From TrEMBL:
GO terms for biological process: thiamine biosynthetic process. InterPro entries: NMT1/THI5, SsuA/THI5. Residues 51-259 form the SsuA/THI5-like domain. This is NitT/TauT family transport system substrate-binding protein. Residues 1-31 form the signal peptide. The keyword Signal applies. Keywords: Signal. It comes from Paraburkholderia caballeronis.
């Protein structure tokens, strides 16, 4: 009887050893599989906190787990991201969900493949000492945007239109990624349209400001991952993997902005010693930008249609594009 038991145990041990060796070999092959290089275009320098989902997905290994190695390249605004992608100078990029509306109307075939939040990225941020309580109060003021080609400028036109104002009723200043908030901090500008962290930058100088999501005035969308039609057709699996990894990181921030802030500070040396600042900004994103009624990353067709109608009304674009050509939810799981 003992001999039989020993033989069974011996066979079981050999089987276990074989399975272990096979698993190890499989892991080793996987580990040795070369990562696919992906060039991702950013609308501003990578240190902007709006890009936290991308930077955390990278530092936490989410892209590597999908078999991707990402190279970050900063260009001049979301519209430029789309133009460069259509020209073949990158694989994927970051812009507002609105951007394909503007670009496709000009013959640039890009599409949004994932939406990073159920609310607009851009906020109307006003100095409290300038007494701007509504959009109409912007008349005669000075307002900063990042650039005249950035979607923050086109959102500004929508805000003005909601109060029957036009571009000529105030001064709109393109300050770049630093000047856009510095001008508000110094008093050169009364307000800005931009990301939540720019408001936090102003507050860090001691100036009190008020944040208003831009969808209080005009339809809008959050930050989005965009790709050219050619990229979507030729390499949909890479698009899917990148989207999945990024949404994973966005969900991490939404679920625990404090822990995500610590991870971000550890990953981005330029924010060393600024944990409180990063926590404040990521908490705002987690509460006021990322949540939405749909699946993470998903576009609401009705909102896309409303944004396009608003752009037509403000003559940002002259002709409507088929709504389904502007975005896709096929990469959302």
């Amino acid at each position: 009887m003992k001999t039989g038991i020993v033989k069974v145990l011996t066979r079981a041990s050999r089987t276990l050893a074989t399975l272990t060796a096979l698993a190890a070999a499989s892991l080793n092959v996987h580990a040795q599989t070369p990562l696919k290089d992906v060039t991702f275009l950013l609308a501003a320098p990578p240190g902007e906190l709006a890009f936290a989902p991308f930077m955390l997905a990278d530092s936490k290994g989410y892209y590597a787990k999908e078999g991707l190695r990402v190279r970050w390249v900063a260009v001049h605004g979301g519209a430029d991201v789309g133009k460069q992608l259509a020209a073949g100078n990158g694989d994927l990029g970051d812009a507002l969900g609105d951007t394909p509306i503007i670009l496709r109307a000009n013959g640039i075939d890009v599409k949004a493949v994932a939406l990073l939040g159920g609310h607009p990225l851009h906020q109307l941020i006003t100095r409290d000492d300038r007494h701007i309580a509504r959009a109409a109060d912007l008349k005669g003021k000075t307002l900063s945007v990042m650039s005249y080609e950035d979607t923050s400028y086109f959102v500004t036109l929508g805000i003005l239109g909601s109060a029957q104002l036009t571009r000529t009723d105030l001064q709109v200043h393109a300050g770049g990624p630093s000047g856009v908030w510095q001008d508000v901090a110094t008093g050169k500008s009364d307000a800005l349209v931009g990301t939540p962290e720019w408001g936090a930058d102003v507050e860090a100088t001691g100036v009190k400001v008020t944040y208003r999501p831009t969808d209080q005035f005009t339809p809008g969308m959050g930050q989005a991952i965009i790709a050219s039609d050619r990229e979507i057709a030729s390499d949909p699996e890479t698009v899917r993997k990148f989207v999945r990894a990024t949404l994973h990181a966005m969900n991490d921030i939404q679920q625990d902005p404090q822990a995500s802030a610590k991870e971000y500070v550890a990953a981005v040396p330029s924010y060393s010693g600024k944990l409180d600042f990063v926590t404040k900004v990521l908490s705002y994103y987690a509460k006021s930008v990322f949540p939405g009624p749909l699946r993470p990353g998903e576009f609401d067709r009705a909102i896309v249609e409303k944004v396009q109608s608003a752009y037509l009304d403000e003559k940002v674009v002259r002709a409507a594009q088929p709504v389904d050509s502007l975005f896709t939810n096929r990469f959302i799981q």
